[in-house]
Amino acid sequence: MSLASAVEISAVMPAFNEEANLEQSVGRMAAALGAQARAFEVIVVDDGSRDGTAALLERLKAIHPSLRVVRHPVNRGYGAALRSGFAAAHYPWVFLMDADNQFDPSDVTALLARAADADIVAGYRKQRRDPLPRRLNAWAFFTLVAILFGRLARDVNCAFKLMRRDLLARMELHSEGALINTEVFVLARQLHARVVEVPIQHYPRTSGRQTGANLRVVLRAFTELLAFKAEMRKVEKAA
Ligand SMILES: Nc1nc2c(ncn2[C@@H]2O[C@H](COP(=O)(O)OP(=O)(O)O)[C@@H](O)[C@H]2O)c(=O)[nH]1
Ligand SMILES: [Mg+2]
User: Fold this and answer.
1) What are the residues whose beta carbons fall under 8 Å from the beta carbon of 82, sequence distance 6 or more?
2) Whole domain around residue 156: which residue ranges?
3) pTM over 0.90
4) How far apart are the C-alpha atoms of 191 and 193, rounded to whole Å?
5) CATH number at residue 99
6) Atom 20, ligand 1: residue with shortest CA distance
7) First-to-final CA distance of the chain
8) What is the pLDDT along the chain (239 residues), one digit of tens a residue?
9) Domain count of the chain?
10) Closest ligand 1 atom to the C-alpha of 99?
11) Disulfide-capable partner of 118 in 18, 37, 196, 198 (CB 3.0 to 4.6 Å)?
């Protein structure tokens, strides 16, 4: 039996107002994991969506028995959604992928190929297919992250990662917003986790609305970043 077919995977897919994308992204995820994993579940975290996401997910549950839905009654943010998804996961590997069809879940084979000797297999986007303003704010943010924390990964926020659940369980994650990936990598380093990086294809968003460049999202990420740095300084001093 190959390693890939022996693994058990909980996919975690954050979704905020993704009714235009979920039928496809959940279907492709279930098909990819059905082909690659011995057992799997697809956990969609509906973070207080105000479109038809909740009703669509109910309908999709009837089609995909592996689908589980975690719902926040009101929108809390990307980090809060990932933490809810991680907490709901049952299987030894957690596979994070956004719900917006900017990745191809069958590329999980490339992550699984490296999983045996890793605690986190982190995808990085060979070419990031996002509009220029989104790429510029990502660049500014990660320049600051690199100044504060040093090099963490090639593509910290790439939403295509395989992580051991027991590693995540040892992390006290607090981010409500987009800082969550930075927090995961900083804590992974503290825990001496083995991180392997793998190039992954990225696709333009063709449906639904991107919120990753919203001023509110970006400002919150900066505020969380500075608070997290202050917290880590305290931890380092205490150590
Ligand atoms: N849970 C949650 N997910 C969100 C939120 N905003 C965006 N998302 C989801 O996170 C993923 C990435 O969002 P997107 O706007 O495409 O950001 P980008 O790809 O980083 O520019 C998508 O699956 C969205 O549905 C949010 O406030 N809460
Ligand atoms: Mg996106």
Assistant:
1) 12, 14, 45, 96, 173, 180
2) 3-238
3) yes
4) 5
5) 3.90.550.10
6) 212
7) 44
8) 455 568 999 999 999 999 999 999 999 999 999 999 999 999 999 999 999 999 999 999 999 999 999 999 999 999 999 999 999 999 999 999 999 999 999 999 999 999 999 999 999 999 999 999 999 989 999 899 999 999 999 999 999 999 999 999 999 999 999 999 999 999 999 999 999 999 999 999 999 998 877 888 888 889 999 999 999 998 888 87
9) 1
10) 23
11) 196
